[in-house]
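Hello everyone,

My group is preparing for a crystallization screen and wants a predicted model to guide construct design. The compound we'll soak is NAP. Before spending weeks at the bench, it would help to have a computed complex in hand. I've included the protein sequence and the ligand's SMILES below. Output in structure-token form would be ideal because that's what our pipeline reads.
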Amino acid sequence: MSKKILLTGCTRGLGRAMADGFRERGHIIAGCSRNSDQISAISEEFGSDHFFQSVDVSKEDDIRSFCEAAIDHFGEAPDLLINNAALINRNAPLWEISAEEMAAIVDVNIEGVAHTIRHVVPSMIEKGSGVIVNFSSYWGRSTSSDVAPYCATKFAIEGLTSGLAQDLPAGLAAVAFNPGVINTDMLQSCFGPGASSYSSPRQWAEKSVPYLEGLSASDNGASVTAPGQ
Ligand SMILES: NC(=O)c1ccc[n+]([C@@H]2O[C@H](COP(=O)([O-])OP(=O)(O)OC[C@H]3O[C@@H](n4cnc5c(N)ncnc54)[C@H](OP(=O)(O)O)[C@@H]3O)[C@@H](O)[C@H]2O)c1
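Reply:
Good plan to model first. Here are the tokens for the complex, ready for your pipeline.
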């Protein structure tokens, strides 16, 4: 059955691979990212069954309008809300990260996730079903040097998701999803040329898209890792 999927960060990396994979499997996407040229390109390629808007997840008013427009486009609450958009800090020890960079990472990686939840979950509650997938990381469960701000936000995602799962009524689910390690712009920022030895987003999506599609209310509160990772 065709699912309605609201996806943040849909233009590059894992988000773009998920958009392609879900579309190929007959699902309807409402997606956002910041870059308006890339949003226009995906919008034109996918056609009017799908809905795309240039939105920064850290801006609550814009996310509210985007979520309302997406729900309107679907005609009901999404079946799946995928909080994929995130930033990583430039490699550096914590004391060399400016307050501005730290705030930007927290605003996108934590506040951005809370914004979509605030503006989508009430419609899921009304519908009586829906799965929220919050993208975590190996760095949401363990740490490395030079990425403390990013680790802090992904540990927060694990806690936020576990707490949210306890708030949700029966029929809904919140899941923290670690995608593994995949060669995207984000990985290139922290691994440099070493990123190229990891799988491409497209290869990753072959297993991850069916896996995400199969999550259900029985997965509420789970903290999981992508298949094959
Ligand atoms: N790649 C990995 O190995 C890996 C490992 C563990 C976890 N993850 C997680 O997986 C998710 C996807 O990562 P990725 O590697 O695909 O990252 P990526 O290549 O950097 O792509 C990020 C996507 O999110 C969008 N985005 C960034 N900031 C945004 C904002 N403020 N508002 C809306 N959209 C925004 C970007 O488009 P714009 O810049 O145009 O907005 C882009 O489409 C993230 O949550 C990341 O933490 C990735």
